[in-house]
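Appendix C. Worked example: Reactive mitochondrial oxygen species modulator 1-domain-containing protein
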Amino acid sequence: MPAVPQHGQPAGLTVWQKRAMGAMMGAGVGLTMGFLFGSFSILRGGAGPRGVLPTLSQYMLGSAATFSFFLAIGSVIRNDGELPPHLEAARLQLASPIMRSRADGVSNMRLQWALEKQRRSSQ
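Step 2, the predicted output written as structure tokens:
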């Protein structure tokens, strides 16, 4: 469920909500992969002394825990660099020309050439 924007806050998901969404997606992927690899392992080598269901569930839960852990961390890391729009605009204004887009770099370079040409012609 998306977050309802409060007064003065940007719309979107919070870090906690993105972490939870990453964990849920990882759990789904992990359960599926655990089912596939666990089934293959059981068919290939047998279920072992515990039986089919406990062995398959161990594969599935272990895989789900691993995938959900790493996808949750990845979601938080990916969310870490996002800024609200007004702060992103301020960051772009204060950033060096190297940090900006190619079009900004070209226009800045042409402006510097024009200033240098004007300075040489006035000497």
